[in-house]
């Protein structure tokens, strides 16, 4: 059923029933009594307990302030998570993560940092307050940021 409808997740009869109940509730055209009759519920508590979505899909701050609730915008915003591919890679492998070190910008930063590091005596903390140590720390921060940006870009490409 899910393949036919284009829904990637497994579609069960309960999912269709739940969706139908949500549509009946949000339409505003169906009374509680008619909804209970259609859903074959004895009273409204069944719907409230098992079918009413726990997600708030209304623009409550706008409603409270007396502004336009922008229902189309809120409906689109609430649907955004449905388009996310659950099978997309969310993390890089160790090999992919370290592959960014070979990029020219990052390799240059690593080389500069290592040159400064080799010129300092150990432990490095003993050089706190010196300009050389501050340059070393600045290069480390730049390197960390450059790696993160490159890894994020690589993850988007995969």
UniProtKB/TrEMBL annotation:
Q: Which Pfam families match?
A: DUF3435
Which domain of life does this protein belong to? Eukaryota
Show the InterPro entries listed in the entry: DUF3435
Q: What is this protein called?
A: C2H2 finger domain protein
């Amino acid at each position: 059923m899910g393949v036919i409808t284009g829904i990637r997740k497994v579609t069960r009869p309960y999912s269709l029933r739940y969706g139908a109940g949500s549509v009946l509730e949000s339409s505003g055209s169906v009374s509680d009594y008619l909804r209970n009759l259609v859903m074959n519920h004895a009273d409204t508590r069944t719907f409230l307990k098992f079918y009413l979505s726990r997600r708030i899909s209304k623009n409550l701050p706008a409603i409270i302030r007396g502004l336009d609730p922008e229902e189309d915008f809120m409906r689109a915003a609430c649907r955004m998570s449905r388009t996310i591919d659950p099978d997309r890679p969310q993390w890089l492998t160790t090999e992919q993560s370290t592959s960014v070190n070979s990029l020219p910008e990052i390799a240059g930063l690593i080389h500069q940092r290592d040159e400064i590091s080799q010129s300092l005596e150990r432990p490095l903390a003993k050089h706190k307050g010196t300009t050389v140590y501050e340059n070393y720390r600045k290069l480390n921060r730049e390197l960390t940021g450059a790696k993160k940006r490159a890894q994020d870009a690589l993850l988007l490409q995969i």
